[in-house]
Specification:
The chain is of the alpha/beta class and about 675 residues long. The chain contains 22 helices and 21 strands.
Length: about 675
């Protein structure tokens, strides 16, 4: 079947160049891709009911004979209504269509159809308005519904899918070994593809979904484990000199045991035969930057170079300032490279990186740009890993010869999901906060107490402290600018007219966001009204209050990330959750936030209460694209797939056995984002 992924969609009858562009838009440029374009839902037509048994406004199937073909009736507004009648054996009911002149030619009097749609009641009498219909003799028991795009409807996709299935060879090479399928009761691939698109029963559909979900997660795990275990190659930089104790002496504070452990694990990796691939996962404020600095120091003291990439210029500048402070008075001098670095200064920095005189580079995506060359890049570090894609991670390591790689994430993730996200990496966890950090006190209040809360922010501003206010969450795709601007305007004119109010939202240009955050960080603003774009951002130790409107609309982990913007200094800090939610789940989530500041406990509770969707939202970049698996629903299948992948690779680490060679090819293709098959 692999050749079907090289067969253009135009091989299907009725698909020309123009329609092919529409299929590309839904992710199906080839016949193979189309077969892996799964329905978004299904209509169960296998249990028609008499119309008298239908519930109002609930879709249902009704089998009936047309007793009168719809005829045209002009109504107000230039609308033409077409009304006919059908008889289900118990009730004669009206069929109504609008502006559809073709309906008089496709419905035939005396013929039996299956009508599907919502039943409406007029004067207690049932009828159907614009129902779909199928000849009763050839009606499918279950009808797939596909995601559409303008110019390409679900029915057209169905017709193309029927042709694509006919192109499947008699024997479809199955990526799952027969023994594995048998042990888990999974159907063969050909059957799964046929039944996922045109199931004969709902039971057949469930079997097909289970098989394809397992396949997708299993192949992903296999590809990640192959990356982790057997395909790192030989290290270009074995760092045998351990300089970490020398680094700890440079710090103005005592490192935590967790920081020491993470550095020790990474240093051991960097002395090995293969390049390090390690994730340092730590709660907000757990000291990840010091870990990265220790490893940059290690690289420099072994005669090599290190690069640390951050997602924003402000964060890159903060890291540069921190590393410069740590390395002050030593022979290690970091350089900073961002998109706004002046041309003359940039040229000097590029020269110092190319000749090796600059041992540590800190920067943004500018580090990936053409012309940036390193003499001896041995360590690549990415901060806020979920903000970078795998391609950007690889582009940074490509600047050197098999360099070590460290990725850092401030998003606490339960271990099962960490394996899903970062299965190719070893994991270090920073589960201690540095001494002197005071836990953030968290309170949930109803909106009727908002004025008191704003008075609390005013008092802190009068004492020289700063605060964040996160605006009410609005639907994805809406303009978040209005929410922020209106809220900030109300504060300036009504509630807090004497304070300096700034605003930040997703519609602002990057340079505008940087300017606002710089003003807030420097103390020029008392309160920053923002959307969740501040969730990952610069440290502002003087910010001591985080107030979040409509807190019930956010996931626990996201609320915890927002709370982490305060509590960065020595002053007591507070998080105020404004919510009027009464449902038990929302109340439980607020109670968790108020009772703990442990990000890993928060993450576990979020997983238990809401499923893992919060970790896999659209804001998370660089995540694998899943075509059928749903991380909010299929966690148990993920665990099963992880166990199966680990067991198989223990028995055959390189998938070299004859029965596993095809699996290896499919896993390599899946690792690049292409489905198996």
């Amino acid at each position: 079947m692999a050749s079907l992924f090289q067969t253009p969609i135009t091989a299907l009858r009725g698909v020309g160049d123009k329609k092919a562009k529409l299929f590309e838009r839904i992710g199906a440029p080839t016949v193979g891709d189309l077969l892996y374009t799964f329905p978004r839902g299904y209509e169960d037509l296998s249990h028609p009911i008499p119309i008298r048994m239908a519930s109002p406004d609930q879709p249902c199937a009704v089998r009936a004979i047309v007793t009168r073909v719809p005829s045209a009736v002009r109504v107000h507004g230039g609308v033409t209504l077409y009304r006919g009648f059908a008889d289900d054996g118990e009730t004669v009911f009206p069929l109504t269509y609008f502006n559809n002149p073709y309906i008089v030619h496709v419905l035939h009097e005396g013929e039996e159809y299956l009508f599907y749609g919502k039943v409406t009641f007029l004067h207690l009498k049932p009828g159907m308005t614009t129902p779909e219909f199928f000849p009763a003799a050839s009606c499918p028991p279950v009808r797939p519904i596909y995601r559409q795009t303008e110019g390409l409807n679900s029915r057209t996709i169905q017709q193309a899918m029927k042709q694509a299935l006919l192109l499947l060879p008699e024997t479809v090479h199955d990526p799952l070994p027969e023994e594995l399928r048998a042990s888990r009761g999974l159907c063969p691939l050909r059957q799964a593809l046929e039944d996922i698109h045109f199931p004969s029963t709902m039971q057949a559909l469930e079997k097909a979904k289970r098989r394809l979900i397992f396949e997708e997660l299993f192949l992903l795990q296999i590809s990640l484990l192959l990356l982790k275990n057997g395909e790192r190659g030989e290290s270009g930089w074995r760092m045998t000199q351990d300089a970490t104790e020398e680094f700890w002496q440079l710090l103005p504070f005592t490192p935590t045991g967790a920081q020491r452990r993470a550095v020790r694990e990474a240093v051991a990796d960097m002395a090995g035969d293969s390049p390090m691939r390690r994730l340092v996962q730590g709660d907000v404020g757990s000291g990840k930057t010091a870990v990265a600095a220790a490893l940059c120091w290690q690289a420099a003291k072994n005669g090599a170079q290190a690069a640390l990439m951050a997602p924003t210029e402000l964060l890159a500048r903060q890291h540069f300032a921190t590393l410069s402070s740590f390395f002050s008075g030593t022979d290690v001098h970091p350089v900073l490279l961002t998109g706004s670095t002046p041309k003359k200064e940039r040229a000097a920095i590029l020269a110092s990186l190319a000749d090796g005189s600059a041992q540590v580079a800190v920067g943004t995506h500018a580090l990936l740009s053409e012309g940036v060359e390193f003499a001896r890049l041995a360590l690549a570090v990415t901060d806020e890993q979920h903000r970078f894609g795998v391609g950007q991670r690889s582009a940074l390591t490509a600047k050197g010869h098999s360099p070590h790689m460290l990725v850092m994430s401030a998003t606490p993730i339960p271990r099962t999901l960490a394996l899903m996200l970062y299965g190719d990496l070893d994991l270090s966890v920073l589960d201690e906060l540095p001494p002197g950090r005071t836990p953030v006190l968290t309170y949930a209040i109803p909106s009727e107490k908002r004025r008191r809360a704003l008075g609390f922010l005013r008092r802190h501003a009068q004492e020289g402290r700063q605060s964040y206010i996160i605006c009410p969450m609005i639907d994805e795709g809406d303009d978040d600018r209005a929410s922020v601007t209106e809220y900030a305007a109300r504060l300036r004119t009504e509630e807090l007219p004497s304070l300096r109010i700034g605003e930040l939202h997703g519609r602002m240009k990057p340079a505008e966001k940087e300017e606002v955050m710089t003003r807030f960080a420097s103390g020029d603003l008392d309160i920053l009204v923002s959307t969740t774009v501040v969730e990952v951002g610069v440290d502002v130790p003087n910010a001591v209050v985080m107030m979040i409107e409509n807190a019930e609309r956010y996931g626990l982990s996201q609320l915890h990330q927002l709370r982490g913007r305060v509590g960065r200094g020595s002053q007591q800090s507070y998080c105020i959750l404004v919510t009027d939610a009464q449902n038990q789940e929302a109340v439980s989530r607020m109670q968790v936030l108020c009772s703990t500041t442990d990000g890993f406990r928060v993450a576990d509770e979020d997983l238990r209460l809401r499923g893992p969707g919060d970790f896999f939202g659209s804001r998370q970049h660089g995540l694998p694209t899943l075509r059928i698996a749903d991380m909010a629903e299929d966690l148990s299948v993920l665990r099963d797939a992880q166990d199966a992948a680990a067991a198989l690779l223990r028995a055959d680490p390189t998938l070299s056995l004859p029965e596993h060679r095809r699996l290896r090819r499919y896993a390599q293709r899946t690792g690049g984002g292409q489905p198996a098959g």
